[in-house]
Amino acid sequence: MTKTVTLDHVSIRFGNYLAVDDAHLEIAGGEFFSFLGPSGCGKTTLLRCVSGFVQPTEGRVLIGGDDMRGVGPNKRPTALIFQNLALFPLMTVAENIAFPLEVRGVSKKERRKRADELLDLIALAGQGDKKVTELSGGQRQRVAIARALAVQPDILLLDEPLSALDLKLRQHMRTELREIQRRVGLTFIYITHDQGEALTMSDRVAVMSRGVIEQVADPVTLYDKPKTAFVASFVGETNAIAGKVTARDGDVVEIESASGLRLRGIAAGGRNYPIGETCLLFVRPEQLRPDGGAANVIQAKLAGDEFEGNARHLLLDAGDLRLRMMLVNDGRMPDVPDGVVKAGFDVESALVLPDGPLAKG
Ligand code: ATP
C-alpha cells in the first residue's frame, strides 16, 4: 500500500545542537522523494526520525495520516536500506531475501514463494540458490532492496545506498532503482549528497543545508528556479557573481560587481531588490557563449580548457572572477585572439538572488 509521510514542523536537537530546524512537508503516497544536501546537513537524522530511531524534539511525524509518536521502529510500516548492505555472506540469495520473514515465523513454503516473486522483481529470477558472494555489486544491491521489500513495507527509506559502488554501476543503479520503485509503486524516501542521483531519480527533492530545508521542488524547477543562493550553487554547476543593485526595471535587475562589471538578470521570486543591496547573479556555464554582442558581456582571459567529447569546458579569469563556460557543440575550440574570450549571456538566462551562503566546492 502507498502511504503519505508528513513532517509536521519537525525539529531535532542533540543537546544544544539543532540538527533539523522546523522541517515541514508532505511526501505523497508512491512518490520518489529525495533529501539532498552536503555531509552533516541533517538528512540522515531526518530519515532516522521517519523510521523511529530518533525522536523529534518538536513537531511530529505522520505516516498515512497516523501520528507516529510512541510507535517504535518495528511497529512502523517502513524498511531501511543503508550504504552498508549487511547481507549474510553464508546464505543464498533467496535465504537472504526471506530472512526477515523467517524471523517473523513465516512458513518455509510461503517464504520461498515470496522470495521467488521478489527475485522476479529485481530481475534475478532463477538465481535464488546462488551465494551472495557470487553476485556483482549491483546485483547485491538489488538483493538488499528485495530483502527490505520482503516484509511488505509501505515506505522504503534509502540512506545513500549507492555510495559504495563505482561510478558506472552507480549510474546504472539509478535507472534500476527508479524502475523498481515504479513497479512496486511504494513511497521511496532517498537520502543523498549527490545532486545527479537526486535529479535523475526523484519526483521531488528537498535541498537541505545546516538543518534547514531550503527548497522542495521537482528537479527541473530546482535547476531552473532555485530560491536561494545555496540551492543555486549546490544543484548543478553555476557561476556566482556578487554585486550591488544599481537599477531595476520590472523583473530585470542590474548589478555592479566590485570590479565595475554591470550585468543584468531576472529577479528571482518576485522580490523587491532595493538599490544598493548586495545580491548574487547566477549564470550556468551552458548559458555562456563567446559573443561580444550579447546583452551581458564579461571580457575574460582563457585560463584553461577541458575537452569532453561532446562538450568543452573553458575556464576564464576576469579580474578576481573565475568563470566556467560550457560549449555544447562538436567540442571544437572557438577562436581566442590573444587569449581573450568575450563571455556573453542573455538577461533571461541569469538569475539574481539575495546574498546568502554558497555551497562549497
Ligand atoms: P552524512 O551524509 O555525513 O551522514 P547527514 O546530512 O546525514 O550527513 P546527519 O548524520 O543527519 O547529517 O547529522 C547532522 C548533524 O547532527 C551532524 O552535525 C552530526 O554530527 C549531528 N548528529 C547526528 N546524530 C547525532 C547524535 N546521535 N548525537 C549528537 N549529534 C548527532
TrEMBL record:
<dbReference type="GO" id="GO:0016887">
    <property type="term" value="F:ATP hydrolysis activity"/>
</dbReference>
<dbReference type="InterPro" id="IPR050093">
    <property type="entry name" value="ABC_SmlMolc_Importer"/>
</dbReference>
<dbReference type="GO" id="GO:0005524">
    <property type="term" value="F:ATP binding"/>
</dbReference>
<dbReference type="InterPro" id="IPR008995">
    <property type="entry name" value="Mo/tungstate-bd_C_term_dom"/>
</dbReference>
<dbReference type="InterPro" id="IPR003439">
    <property type="entry name" value="ABC_transporter-like_ATP-bd"/>
</dbReference>
<dbReference type="InterPro" id="IPR017871">
    <property type="entry name" value="ABC_transporter-like_CS"/>
</dbReference>
<keyword id="KW-0547">Nucleotide-binding</keyword>
<dbReference type="GO" id="GO:0015697">
    <property type="term" value="P:quaternary ammonium group transport"/>
</dbReference>
<keyword id="KW-0067">ATP-binding</keyword>
<feature type="domain" description="ABC transporter">
    <location>
        <begin position="5"/>
        <end position="235"/>
    </location>
</feature>
<dbReference type="InterPro" id="IPR027417">
    <property type="entry name" value="P-loop_NTPase"/>
</dbReference>
<protein>
    <submittedName>
        <fullName>ABC transporter ATP-binding protein</fullName>
    </submittedName>
</protein>
<dbReference type="Pfam" id="PF00005">
    <property type="entry name" value="ABC_tran"/>
</dbReference>
<dbReference type="InterPro" id="IPR003593">
    <property type="entry name" value="AAA+_ATPase"/>
</dbReference>
<keyword id="KW-0813">Transport</keyword>
